[in-house]
Every structure is written in structure tokens, then in C-alpha cells.
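Dear colleague,

Thank you for sharing your sequence with our group. We've completed the structure prediction you requested, and as agreed, I am returning the results in plain text so they can be pasted directly into your records. Please verify that the sequence below matches your submission; if there's any discrepancy, let me know and we will rerun it promptly.
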Amino acid sequence: MPKATLQCCICNKQFDRYIYDEKPRHFCSKACLAIGNIGENNPNYGNKWTEEQRKQAGEEKRKFFAENPDKAHACGKTNRGKKFSEDRIQKMHAHRTRESYQHYPNDETRRIIGQKSSAKWTDEYKQRNRRIREEKGVWIPLELKSDWEVYQKEANWISRMFDIIDDPRQILLEYGVFNAKTNTKGVVRDHIYGRKSGFYNGVFPEIMRHPANCQILLHSENVAKKKERYVDDDGHTLDELFEAIRRYNKEWCEHEIVLQRIKEYENGKRYERK
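Please find the predicted C-alpha cells below.
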């Protein structure tokens, strides 16, 4: 097959290359290719797949891999069998800034996420999800867990929280999220009214995991709060937590449920393990 003389559609440089298919746009280098695919230069700029197109593409890809298992296996060859050492991880992320990992959706996006999450995570869905994970051996069956272990899990955050509570951007950008290996000076999410207190007093888990009960602290500050394992000094009383939740004016997928739980608590009802 002879080479053809082409002209780069970015820098207009002429170059010789073998032509395997007829494409309307040609690039002389990877640098020009990158420029040609950014923003409005990309021929697909502004286009969006329909749900039908997404479904069709997914079915075609699954069919392709089912008929070509060697291709499916080859997709993971780059990192298969390789250990992700600290040096390897550093090389993968060294070119990125901490800010590039942060994502803060706007209020409308948060509202939509909250609505969809609330609609999805019904009691039936949670029960089915637990049953499947227990059968796979991923989760420990509930009957093997203590009352505290069950409560501790149920009262934990069901969202990142960093994107929801009052603006934690500055402390996040300065210190990043805590990691026991890579960022021991980072920040963590903390229950202002502690989970152990909630457990002893029969507070419903939905109340404990409300954003009004969440604060962002340095890991060292959170450790300093502890009186003993799993027991923190409470940042406010239970009545103060109830009042903070009632004043809460942002979107939260469980907010109405939590308000109902507060009424039930004040009428004498307490949390009981299911």
C-alpha cells in the first residue's frame, strides 16, 4: 500500500502516511490530534447520546467481548499482575493537583441527586442489597453482629458529606481527605453528637447521619475528642441537634424522614434493632 500526502487540519503541515480508511480530518502528530479533539474542535462537541444509543452501544460491546474473550482479557493487560507500589501510585498522580480531584455539584444537581437517591434506597432495595452481599460473602450476616456494630453502621454517613455540609472547601484544599497511608494529616467527617451517645439513648440512625450532625475536622482533632474507644465528647446536646435539624434549609434525601423520627423520639419511641 503506497503512502499518501496529507495535510494536517490543525497546523496545515503536509506529511506522508498510509491511509487505512477515509477520514475527513487528518493530524500530523499527537499534539495536533489533542488540539483537534478539545472543545468546539471536536466534531462531537455538543452532541449527546440518547438512552437508546447508550443501550445499543452497551449491548454491542457486551456481545463483542462475549464473542472475543481474548479481546476482553487484553483490556486488563496493562496492570494485570502488577503491584501498585507507592512509587507507581506517585507516578500516576504526580502530574495532577489536589484541586483537580475536587468536585462540588451545584444546588440543582444536589437536589436531583437527593431525589434519585431517596427514590432508589427503599427498605426493599436495602434488604435485597444486603441479602445479595451476604450470599456472596462480602458482608457479615446481621445475625452475627452485635447491636452496637449494627447501629454504628446504620448511623454512619450515606453520602460523601463534603459536598453537602457548610462550605468545607478551604480546609479540604489545604489538607485533603485523611488516609492512613498517604495523608495522615488530612480531614475526616465527624458526628457532632456521637454515635455511642446515640446508641445509649436509642436515637434513630437517620437522625445521627443527618448533615446537621456532621462537621469536618482534622484527623488529629477528631482523635483528641475521644474519651475512650468509640466514645467522643459530644459537640452539642440531643436537643440542640434536633433544633439544628429543624433549622436545616438545604436539600437532603432523608430530611422529611428525620423530622418524623424526631417527633417519634420526643413522643417516647426509641430505636430498636430490626
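Summary note from our side: The CA atoms of residues 114 and 252 lie 6 Å apart.

Kind regards,
the structure core
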